[in-house]
Specification:
25% strand; 32% helix; alpha/beta; 23 strands; 2 domains; Rossmann fold; 492 residues; 4-stranded parallel sheet; globular
Amino acid sequence: MRRLHKIIVPNLEADPSKNCYWWDGKWYTCSDLLALKDSCRSVLKSAGFGEGQRLVVMLRNCPLIPALSLAVWELGGIFCPLNEKAGLESLTGTLDLIKPFAVIAEHEIPELSRLWPFITCGLDDKTLPAFTGKAQPPEPEDYAIIFATSGTTGLPKAVPLTHENLLSNCEATHAMIPSISSDDVFLNVLPNFHSFGYTVTIMLPLTIGGRLAIAPSFLPPAMTIRAIDEAKVDVMFVVPAIMSFLLMSVEKGKLAPEILSRIRVICTGGDKLNPNLHKLSLKFLGRDIMEGYGLTETSPVICVNHDCETQITGSIGPVLPGYEYRIRTREGQDTTDNEGVLWVKGPCVTPGYLHAPEITAERFDSEGWFNTGDYVKIDAEGYVYILDRVTDIIIVGGFNVYPQEVEKVLAEHPAVHAAVVVGVPHAINGEIPKAYVQLNDGAETSDRDIIKFAKEHLAHFKVPRSVEFVEEFPLSGTGKILRRVLRERARQ
């Protein structure tokens, strides 16, 4: 049975003097990461941490994240990164489900520290303070990590991923993007409590012997820009919101394009990419942005474009090697159509939701196929296009309206920076589209003008019946637009 630490630690030991991670203006070696790992392992072992136990970590990105991961795995345990800002109710429910041995955080949360052993430490700490944990019934030995995810419901769920899940996803992603190598510096700015940030910007580089440029978070952006510049980042996996901010800063003259133009590989995931960003990237950086796609339950990457030369704008690329995939109807029936709900199966897919057999049964069939919940189209060359989340599709008088199609058209209006379209209940048509629109800086237009523009480019049933202008969209902790919040707002 393969284990992540048995791949990563030998990589570090092979060249202990090699630069391993950049942090707060300084490069640290592989030997430094090994020493930090050993120190954490010693404290955890003394505290009684062992096989099948869960260590919850609520820290911003820092060197302790990879060090603690390796230490936990060497002791046979499970690493559980959570978002400290998820809210007390969400955290309480998730901790009750995970049942941690202990919780490590930057700040004490009294309501939680009364229930679980709580250890506070700083992002720059070289070890953990001594503590006594609380032993819990063990989870399966092949679990490497447990992520919390709310999905589209807003209710917390826990997704365990095995060592094999993560290793397979790293290997398949690397195979799809062969231009990345052990010589590259990867930006680590996506929150590490999310599978995208954790797998692709920590585990992928460490499994191939690459280097990390660690920034605690994207905000304030100056920290990220400093990391990109000083560490000389080669590869950047980010969410569209980050790419939008960086390119808009270049366009406004607030950020020198030279800082970003040396980056060889830029790939976004986690949300749809505004088509305008492709144009800005080509204009200012001389290269396009690649798109990918995945879910927490799939470790996370399912699809990604190979490179800028072969990518197709608007596509998330082909399915990674190792996955089987099927197109099914919304009712779950296999179809020969090239359009429908995407189901996948393979070594990257979670074994199921933690202690939630009813939720597992809703998303998996009896043969182990996983329902992604995304409605897609696949072309003759195998390139996948996300039409929409099944839950986001608007049904107007019996006709499917895919919000992303409408949003793409609205984004082509000269005054529009971005748009989000949601369904609003309607007595006759069932639902009608409503658009939330963010304008370009200094731009002016009216809702009538937006609707007129839409009528010129869309079938009548796809045209938004109302438009609301917004300064910004509600975002999750990972920078993903919270459509359900806008949907609830529209329906109120």
